[in-house]
Amino acid sequence: MVFWIGVLIFAISSLMFAFLENRRYRQNMFSSHVFVSFFTVISYFVMALALATVSAENGQPIYWTRWIFYIGSCSILTIDIATIAKKPNVKKAEVAVFTALTMFCGFLASIIITLDRWWFFGLSTAAYIGMLYTLFKPSNEGSSNISSIMWFVLLTWSLFPIVWVLAPTGFGIIAADVEAILYLALDLVTKIGFGIYISTMR
Amino acid sequence: MVFWIGVLIFAISSLMFAFLENRRYRQNMFSSHVFVSFFTVISYFVMALALATVSAENGQPIYWTRWIFYIGSCSILTIDIATIAKKPNVKKAEVAVFTALTMFCGFLASIIITLDRWWFFGLSTAAYIGMLYTLFKPSNEGSSNISSIMWFVLLTWSLFPIVWVLAPTGFGIIAADVEAILYLALDLVTKIGFGIYISTMR
Amino acid sequence: MVFWIGVLIFAISSLMFAFLENRRYRQNMFSSHVFVSFFTVISYFVMALALATVSAENGQPIYWTRWIFYIGSCSILTIDIATIAKKPNVKKAEVAVFTALTMFCGFLASIIITLDRWWFFGLSTAAYIGMLYTLFKPSNEGSSNISSIMWFVLLTWSLFPIVWVLAPTGFGIIAADVEAILYLALDLVTKIGFGIYISTMR
Predict the structure, then answer these.
(1) For residues B136 and B132, what is the distance between their CA atoms, to the nearest angstrom?
(2) What is d(CA A8, CA B61) in angstroms, rounded to the nearest whole number?
(3) Which of A145, B112, C37, C182 could form a disulfide with C13, with the two C-beta atoms 3.0–4.6 Å apart?
(4) What are the DSSP E strand ranges found in chain B?
(5) What residues does B54 pair with on adjacent strands?
């Protein structure tokens, strides 16, 4: 099962980041990537054991718990990105709250199987746009600070709602197991790939 | 339905505050009122779709989800008020935790339909008093900082538990639809009215 | 019932700490112990009223809500301990997130009654070790800052998972009522005893 592969990979990456961040940053950095990977391990365990799912109207299972854990892991990631973009603390807080709201509305959109779910997909999208706007908006000092990292984030993160729309959560064009593989690939890129890139860049 | 009116009004106010706060405060202020309105939009959507309710002993529906969303929106509001009152950061944190506990106990009091709910109404009141005490207590430097804003907050916020007691959540003297109208009026005053007043004051 | 005794004791300790912390610290300290006791009051009320429990395979009740409230109370406690150990703010945040993850996985381990619960017991233990490591690791400046308080915390906190393993949540060697007494004793030592010691020390 693809979820167990996710458990294994993110367990290893948790330990790897714990080792890397313990060695490098000394006392002055938050070990973001350890926590991002650890949240993802718990999330994949819950999905691997199929502890809480609902059935889509086409009978396919929906693993809505994923979005609860994204509230934690993705908020940490976007605070990290806002730090790289040298945003002030209030903007980091805004970016984190927008990310949390994006994932929370994503959770509501996933657990609801009636057509009403599209309202929450819309609210999630609105919060996501708010997050991107806050992140990409140039600060007053004139420096844009829009690095290649931010374009990478914009492109890879925006694939999540596309998978959501194609999967049983949306139109049900792809099956739940294909969905799981696609999300795993995206999780690998946005969480482990991004983490390694950031760690080596610094 | 009154909840759909709430969705519409708070969707508009979200956009309005996004426009106002984007134009005015530049990079150095947290866009509190955008988030307060956005939390409220989600809350009213959940109630409009009647996604999660319990039945009071008199058969009337109880929309307990409201109190979950107040944890987010009202904590942001009280941090805002504490900022205006020039409280130090630790006191802002205390005020936010007291507010979150008030709303969390309000949620427990609302979802429980037996007489035991009154225990949690009591705990919610205790946390509310703790919040008001922390907010109104003069700081050491002698300046009281108790502005007219804080009296406005004390008066309008204290109407929420009165509606709760009269509504199906409490003694069931007023019906669920009257309750919804009263809460909407209070939400308009404490969230949009307050937000506009603060925005023009600054 | 032992839970009502807990309600009573922690209600008194909430008021006691509110009095002590209001008198002593003036405007510059977070009233940690008031909140720790208040979270615990709510937790014991929920258990006393048996509002949400599951049955272990041996038929004994499992009060899993306890672990939800520990997320709040124990995070506040470990931030307090990290403050005493003079950790920088990022390390305080790490300690708090590790504590929250410990308790969250403890909640999952408690609400799941199949053998799968041991996976989450393992994840909880991993987060607990991460928390202890962050707390005990000497800072770069060479000062170890490992006080007698931290050994006290290590010893008393580590008894919680031992009770969990012996109780219906684990192997079911001890009954639910004995478990409740042991947890109450540990809560008294780690929350009220610790709070009084810290308050008099300062």
Answers:
(1) 6
(2) 45
(3) C37
(4) 54-55, 61-62
(5) B62
Please give the sequence-ordered ranges of beta strands (E in DSSP) within A50-173, or none if there are none: 54-55, 61-62
Between vectors from CA C131 to CA C128 and to CA C135, what angle results, nearest 5°? 140
Is there a contact between C13 and C37 (Cβ–Cβ < 8 Å)?
yes
What is the DSSP track for C110-169?
HH--STTHHHHHHHHHHHHHHHHHHHHSPPTTS-----HHHHHHHHHHTHHHHHHHHSTT
| Global confidence as pTM | 0.92
Can you tell me the distance from the alpha carbon of A74 to that of A72, in angstroms, rounded to the nearest whole number? 6
Please state, in angstroms and rounded to a whole number, the distance separating the CA atoms of residues A62 and A56. Answer: 6
Per DSSP, C188 falls in state: I
**Pairing status of strand B54-55 against strand B61-62:** antiparallel
B82 within 8 A of B92, measured Cβ to Cβ: yes
Chain B neighbours among A 24-83 (CB < 8 Å)?
none
pLDDT in tens, C16-25: 998 887 776 5
Q: Is B171 helix (H, G, I), strand (E, B) or coil?
A: coil
| Neighbour count for residue C164 (Cβ, 10 Å) | 20
DSSP string covering A142-169, please? S-----HHHHHHHHHHTHHHHHHHHSTT
pLDDT > 90 fraction of chain A, expressed in percent and rounded: 66
Question: Are A120 and A112 in contact, with CB atoms under 8 Å apart?
Answer: yes
Token pair of C126 as six digits: 């991993």
B88 confidence band (pLDDT: 50, 70, 90): confident
CA distance A35 to A111: 25
Give the mean model confidence (pLDDT) for residues C135-157: 76
Per-residue pLDDT, A124: 97
Contact yes or no for A42 and C104 at CB 8 A = yes
Residues of C in contact with A45 (CB under 8 A): 119-120, 123
DSSP SS3 for C55: strand
Strands of C23-116, DSSP E:
54-55, 61-62
Q: Does C140 touch chain A if contact means CB atoms closer than 8 Å?
A: yes
Candidate from A35, A38, A45 with C-beta closest to C119: A45
For residue B80, what are the contacts with CB-CB under 8 A and spacing of at least 6? B32, B198
Quote the distance between the C-alpha of residue B174 and its chain's center: 21
| Residue B192 DSSP class | I
Of B82, B102, B196, B97, residue with least CA distance to B157? B102
Contacts of C169 (CB under 8 A, 6+ apart): C56, C62, C109, C110, C117, C179
Q: One-letter amino acid identity for B184?
A: L
A27 to C123: CB separation less than 8 angstroms, yes or no: no
- Token digits of residue A202: 């610094």
Compute the distance between CA of residue A61 and CA of residue A54 in angstroms, rounded to an integer: 6
Give per-residue pLDDT as tens, B147-185.
788 888 889 999 999 999 999 999 999 999 999 999 999
Neighbours of A59 (CB within 10 A): 9
